[in-house]
């Protein structure tokens, strides 16, 4: 409880899924909350759940890919709370599931802007406050696909591997500087969020031709792969934060991916892709 009680925690992508569950979990543990998302309706619903738990909070519409907006958000949070102790970089997008040859440049630009640039933008903007707090923690949400890549998700995998690399480099720098800030990188497996459906909708919005296989992929993810409840995932993440773990694996599938990546680095992406394809069938 001491890791969260009366600490100021900033959560991006708090309007749904893991971000919403993290906000609620932090509220239950007595944290003060700075919550943001591009989805204002979802953000308001999350805020209401946290208020019922007695949390002090502030909400803000924020696109983490917009650096100027992120920098302008810093004084807003500091004016409300005085400092920030914990940053949860959770906001992310999947992008349309397609091969490299089929993927449009806009998919890469948007996925990298949100998943990687967003993490860097928020971390750099709030890092001085984390250091000044004397008890800071950066929590960056990568993915199972930040451990092992998967076919037809090249933009997503590249961004999530980059989040892992950024986090590990930041952790080393802060240790060398003896700065009072911990860094954890989170690798969730199949958590029951709208990520598969959102990927399908994004592909449709980009004008890609959706085949029966695309719809089967979304159904396979939703029915067979995305099985862990967000509240359970958030609890595992917060336990990892409390234990100051450098790497937090969420779910048995993430643990399997970690082992595959270590033991069979050359074959792991193909093996993972085949396992997922089997679920689609």
Describe it for me?
The chain is built from ten helices and seven strands. The protein has one domain (8-280): 3-Layer(aba) Sandwich (Rossmann fold). A seven-stranded parallel β-sheet has the order 3-2-1-4-5-6-7, sandwiched between helices. The mean pLDDT is 89. With 281 residues, it is α/β, with parallel strands linked by helices. Helix 2 links the parallel strand 2 (32-37) and strand 3 (57-61). Helix 1 (17-28) packs parallel to helix 2 (40-52), helix 4 (105-133) packs parallel to helix 5 (154-176) and helix 6 packs antiparallel against helix 7.
Low-pLDDT sequence parts: none
Report the structural category.
alpha/beta
Predict the CATH topology: Rossmann fold
How much is the average pLDDT? 89
| Approximate shape | globular
Write a brief structural summary.
The chain has 10 helices and 7 strands.
Keywords:
281 residues, alpha/beta, Rossmann fold, seven-stranded parallel sheet, 7 strands, 13% strand, globular
Topology:
Layout: E1 8-11, H1 17-28, E2 32-37, H2 40-52, E3 57-61, H3 67-81, E4 86-89, H4 105-133, E5 136-141, H5 154-176, E6 181-188, H6 195-205, H7 212-225, H8 230-242, E7 247-250, H9 252-263, H10 268-280
Parallel strand pairs: 1-2, 1-4, 2-3, 4-5, 5-6, 6-7
Helix pairs in contact: 1-2, 1-8, 3-4, 4-5, 6-7, 7-10
């Amino acid at each position: 409880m001491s890791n969260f009680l009366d600490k100021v925690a900033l959560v991006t992508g708090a309007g749904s899924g893991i971000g919403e569950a993290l906000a609620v979990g932090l509220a239950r543990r007595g944290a003060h909350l700075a919550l943001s998302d591009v989805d204002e309706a979802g953000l308001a619903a999350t805020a209401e759940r946290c208020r019922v738990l007695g949390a002090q909070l502030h909400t803000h519409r924020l696109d983490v890919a917009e650096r100027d907006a992120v920098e302008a958000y810093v004084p807003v949070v500091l004016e409300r709370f005085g400092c920030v102790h914990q940053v949860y970089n959770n906001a992310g997008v999947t992008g349309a599931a397609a091969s490299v040859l089929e993927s449009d440049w806009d998919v890469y630009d948007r996925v990298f802007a949100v998943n990687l640039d967003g993490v860097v933008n928020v971390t750099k903007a709030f890092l001085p406050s984390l250091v000044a707090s004397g008890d800071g923690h950066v929590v960056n949400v990568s993915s199972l696909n930040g451990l092992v890549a998967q076919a037809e998700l090249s933009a997503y995998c590249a961004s999530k591997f980059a989040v892992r690399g950024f986090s590990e480099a930041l952790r080393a720098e802060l240790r060398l500087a003896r700065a009072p800030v911990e860094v954890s990188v989170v690798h969730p497996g199949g958590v029951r969020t709208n990520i598969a459906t959102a990927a399908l909708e994004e592909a449709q919005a980009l004008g890609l031709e959706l085949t029966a296989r695309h719809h089967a992929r979304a159904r396979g993810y939703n029915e067979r792969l995305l099985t862990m409840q967000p509240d359970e995932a958030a609890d595992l993440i917060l336990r990892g934060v409390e234990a100051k773990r450098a790497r937090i694996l969420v779910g048995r599938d993430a643990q399997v991916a970690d082992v595959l990546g270590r033991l069979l680095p050359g074959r792991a992406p193909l093996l993972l892709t085949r396992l997922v394809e089997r679920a689609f069938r």
